[in-house]
Design goal:
mainly alpha; two-stranded antiparallel sheet
C-alpha cells in the first residue's frame, strides 16, 4: 500500500486500521493480526506500524496488553473523546469563559433531553447530591468549597447521563472536568456564589421532575450564563 499524497507510512497504518474497523474486518474487542502479517498487508515496516499503534492507543482506538497483543477497544464515546480534554488543558486560564460557553451549549440541550428521559432513580440521586451541598452550606462557618463542587459535578454528571445520548455525555464529561478550577474559583471568591448556585440547581431539578424540557433548558442556561459571565469578568487567578 502506497502512502497517500503528503502522508507517511504511519498515516497509512492509521487509515488502514481505521478502514478495517469501519468495514467490520476488526470489531470492538477484536485482536489485531500479528505485527508481521499486519505490516505486510499494509505494505509498511515495523517502525511506522508501532508508531501508528501508539497513536491509536492514545486516541482510545487500540489498547496493548502486555504479553497478549493489541486489541481494538470498545470504541465507547467516552474513550474516543477523552483526548479532547488534552486540547482543553492547553488553553490558558484567560480563556476559561470560552470553554464554559461551549459547556453551556451542550449542557442546556442535555437538560432538555433529560427532562423527558430521566428515571425516578436518577432524580433521587440528583436530589441527594443537592442535599449534600445544602448540608454543607447549613453547617455554619466557612463551607468546604471543594465538597460543594463535588456535589455540583455529581449533579451535572447525572443530568448528562440522563440525556440518553452517549456522545453528548462524553463531550460534556471531557469539557466539564476541565472547568472545575474556574467553578471553584467562583465558589471561593464571589460572596454568595454557593448559595446562588444551589438555588439554581434546585430550579433545574424542579424542571426535570416536572418533565418540562423548555424550562429545564432555560434554567440550565441561566445557571451556566452566571458562571460564564463571572469568569469572563474575573478570570481565575
Amino acid at each position: 500500500m502506497s502512502s497517500p499524497a503528503g502522508g507517511s507510512q504511519t498515516d497509512v497504518v492509521v487509515q488502514g486500521i481505521k478502514q478495517m474497523i469501519v468495514d467490520g474486518t476488526l470489531k470492538p474487542g477484536a485482536k489485531l493480526p500479528i505485527e508481521k502479517d499486519l505490516g505486510e498487508s499494509l505494505g509498511v515496516s515495523r517502525g511506522p506500524l508501532r508508531e501508528a499503534v501508539r497513536a491509536l492507543s492514545i486516541m482510545g482506538v487500540l489498547e496493548t496488553r502486555q504479553g497478549d497483543g493489541t486489541y481494538v477497544t470498545t470504541l465507547d464515546s467516552s474513550l474516543l473523546l477523552a483526548p479532547m480534554g488534552f486540547v482543553v488543558d492547553l488553553q490558558n486560564h484567560g480563556g476559561a469563559h470560552h470553554l464554559h460557553a461551549v459547556r453551556r451549549m451542550l449542557e442546556t440541550e442535555a437538560a432538555a433531553l433529560a427532562a423527558s428521559r430521566i428515571t425516578p432513580e436518577a432524580l433521587q440521586a440528583a436530589g441527594a447530591a443537592l442535599d449534600r451541598a445544602e448540608a454543607e452550606l447549613a453547617s455554619g462557618g466557612e463551607p468546604d468549597h471543594e465538597a460543594i463542587i463535588d456535589s455540583d459535578i455529581a449533579f451535572h454528571r447525572l443530568i448528562a447521563e440522563a440525556s440518553g445520548n452517549p456522545v453528548l455525555e462524553a463531550l460534556i464529561e471531557a469539557l466539564s472536568g476541565r472547568t472545575v478550577r474556574g467553578r471553584l474559583w467562583r465558589s471561593i471568591s464571589q460572596t454568595g456564589a454557593d448559595e446562588t448556585t444551589h438555588a439554581e440547581h434546585r430550579a433545574i431539578l424542579d424542571a426535570l421532575a416536572a418533565r418540562d424540557a423548555d424550562r429545564a433548558r432555560a434554567r440550565m442556561a441561566a445557571h451556566l450564563f452566571a458562571v460564564e459571565d463571572y469568569l469572563r469578568d474575573v478570570p481565575p487567578a
